[in-house]
Amino acid sequence: MPVSTLMTRLRKATREAHDQIQDLPWFQALERGELPIESYVGQLRAMAVLHGVLEYEIPGARDVRLNAVWREDMRRFSRIQRDLAFFASRAIFDISAAHEAANVLADHILQRSADLPISLLGYLYVLEGSIQGATVLAPLIGKSLNLNKGHGLSYLSWESTIAKERWRRFGERMNAVSITVEEEDIIIAAALEAFVEIHRLFQALYPFDPAQLTRKAASLNPEAGAHPMPDDPGEVEAALRAGQRCWLEYPYLAWRFGERGRRYTHSDGAWLITLATRDQTVVNAQVEWLGVVLASKGIPRILLQRHLELLYEELVAQMPEQPTADYGKLLAAADHLAEQRRGVICDTDFDAICRQFEQAVGPDWRTRLPGTGGLLVSAVTDQFRGIEQAVLSLESWLTDPQRFPAHWIVAVREALQDTQAQIRG
Question: What's phi and psi for 350, nearest 5 deg?
């Protein structure tokens, strides 16, 4: 009697759960060409949460057997992000119940990663297997919603021959992993758990109660959580434009934080716009809170100040028919941050240290990372105002010898020391 492989057991154990998902109204509506755009984009946002967490946890898991199965080309989060970027300016509503279901899936993955890392093979089995179904879904969604691979359909677009070969190789790696009978049962239980929660997710996606529709920052950044965002597409567009301008002015952001950081800039900008309806004291307090969070991660508050200034400019340009009084609160919050910095170091001394830093690093590095001197001075003032990790979080990255030349590192440390001396003096 042939020995049953892990893949064979997984297929048999999950067949019924898999079939139950395919019988859900979401898929029936798709076949009829009646699936609402919210249900499709909601699926993308939910799967972004799932892939984002899983693709972060598995490479760093405490069980080397996961790495025997995992391959970098299994990452699909970037495909979803391309699709979500396509829909970003359309400000499509979120389905709150689907968002909650996605968070439950993420919690399960995090718990399993901490307690039973090998069980994540069950989740990989489900997600890799979904590529087979994607080859069927993609043309249906493309026809129903007038989409194509380059415009909102990247996640589901796979050539059938590539999908089959990918699945075959995945199965070989799964079957080659050395596991006990008990661990095999754990992996199967995880796969069943994934199917059950994905079933609940698709139930929430269609049909949905229109009263559940909302706008959350997760529509721009699946990792951003449930923070509110503007209802007006024009305001969302302003947030995207302001974020892009900020990143162009400060290449440091792209160099250090990559596309994940860009998504957070967009979702933070959208959330900041919603503050404009609040009292100025509330706006300032919320901006200060965000400033502490960002500065502790290596994003000095002068960057938040500039982001607010750009948000104001883009909102006024994008929404000329709207009164600017509320948007002016964002500009006032930026001024509030600037005044806090000036309370520590005056503009004259600030500018002098920046000029000295630029001269020390030379024209090449000055062009590569403009504005770095201001970031360094701002980090010191942020720390002076009580943000304990403000300097270390920036200095540790900017003085990495694998990344920067010796003269740059010396200039960074001198700028920090000069600022500290100026403040003490």
Answer: -55, -50
pLDDT of 96 reads 85
Is residue 311 within 8 Å of 330, Cβ to Cβ? yes
The C-alpha atoms of residue 285 and residue 326 are separated, in whole angstroms, by 16
Query: What are the phi and psi torsion angles at 95 (to 5°)?
Result: -100, 110
pLDDT tens digits, one per residue of 303-331? 999 999 999 999 999 887 776 679 999 99
Interval 388-413: pLDDT, tens: 999 999 999 999 999 999 999 999 99
- Given pLDDT bands bounded at 50, 70 and 90, which one contains residue 219? low
Burial 6-26 (b: 16+ CB within 10 A, else e): bbeebeebbeebbeebeebeb
The widest CA-to-CA distance across the chain, in whole angstroms, is: 84
What's the rounded Cα separation, in Å, for the pair 303 and 306?
Answer: 5
CB 419 within 8 A of CB 377: yes
Alpha helices by DSSP H, listed for 296-400, are 301-318, 328-342, 347-368, 372-384, 390-398
Phi, psi dihedrals of residue 156, rounded to the nearest 5°: -100, -5
Query: How many beta carbons lie within 10 A of that of residue 163, not counting itself?
Result: 17
- What would the CATH number be for the domain defined by 6-219? 1.20.910.10
Mean of the per-residue pLDDT values of the chain: 92
In this structure, what token pair is assigned to residue 268? 């933070």
Spatial CB neighbours of 4, under 8 Å, sequence gap ≥ 6: none
Residue 246 gets which letter from DSSP?
H
Domain with CATH 1.20.910.10 in the chain: 6-219
Q: What is the pLDDT of residue 213?
A: 81
State pTM to two decimals. Answer: 0.65
Residue 341, amino acid: R
> In angstroms, rounded to a whole number, what is the distance separating the alpha carbons of residues 24 and 130?
15
